[in-house]
Design goal:
Elements lengths: L1 E2 L3 H7 L5 E5 L4 H16 L4 E5 L4 H7 L6 E4 L2 E7 L4 H11 L1
């Protein structure tokens, strides 16, 4: 998982196909989803980018993210996955969308 640390980097990435994982360190559900993301990364060549919402309020507002954990797939708002996403649902959604 690649951690995004600068807004400038995020804006470049947003123009490409990717999976972006929005989280917060204080969010228990985020930790559970993160475990599933690591499983997917180990078994596939898919790389997730992660963004801590506590440091990017402007981006969170721009993308209208209201809940976490949240995964943006291929930069399409309609493909947001929100909440405590189980492993099977996460894998299905990713492979049906990519």
């Amino acid at each position: 998982m690649i951690i995004i640390k600068k807004k400038k980097n995020f804006l470049k990435i947003l123009k490409k196909k990717c999976l972006i994982y929005f989280f917060a360190n204080w969010c228990f559900s985020c930790l559970e989803v993160k475990k599933n993301i690591y499983k997917i990364e180990k078994k596939t060549n898919i790389i997730f980018l992660s963004l801590n919402i506590d440091y990017f309020n402007e981006i969170i507002t721009f993308l209208n993210i209201r809940n976490i954990p949240c995964i943006l797939i291929n930069n399409k708002i309609k493909n947001f996955l929100v909440g405590n996403i189980n492993f099977k649902k996460l894998v299905l959604k990713i492979f049906l969308t990519i």
